[in-house]
Design goal:
Number of helices: 7
Largest sheet: none
Distance between the termini: 19 Å
Number of strands: 0
Helix content: 55-70%
Order of helices and strands: HHHHHHH
Structural class: mainly alpha
């Protein structure tokens, strides 16, 4: 690595809140591919009767699987890091304010609450505990200086 390497945080183009504005085709393919792998595995479990879920549970499970598996990859690609860790631009509007605010972005990830309501026998405690654990973890990461 070069001794004086610098990251270019500049980007331009139509705002892309999924892959990060300016994402290359390869970056988009990586994110979307990852987003389809886990739902595909869930679909296999459903077809083999490994799980016995209602249509609502199936739809929510596939949506969450796509969001989490694709989001983990997309947010760790250069385009995602550049987009989410730089200042908001005027053309990104209110969505830019919401998605680029680390606190709001974290609070919006209510997956543990949804899972506990749909997949456990009326026990929200499980979801609240995991959501709080997630928020404490997010707080530590957000508060840690780079």
């Amino acid at each position: 690595m070069h001794k004086h390497s610098r990251v270019n945080w500049d980007y331009n183009g139509k705002p892309d809140f999924i892959n990060g504005t300016g994402a290359y085709l390869e970056e988009k393919l990586l994110g979307y591919s990852a987003g389809f792998i886990v739902p595909l595995l869930l679909f296999i479990l459903i077809l083999t009767d490994y799980v016995n879920w209602s249509l609502l549970q199936i739809a929510v499970a596939i949506l969450i699987a796509f969001d989490v598996s694709g989001g983990v990859i997309s947010n760790s690609l250069n385009s995602g890091k550049r987009f989410y860790h730089s200042g908001r631009k005027a053309e990104e509007g209110k969505q830019g304010f919401i998605f680029k605010n680390k606190w709001i972005f974290s609070f919006l990830h209510i997956h543990p609450l949804v899972v506990s309501l749909l997949f456990t026998p009326v026990n929200i405690t499980y979801g609240v505990a995991w959501y709080l654990f997630f928020m404490v973890s997010a707080t530590i990461v957000i508060a840690t200086p780079l």
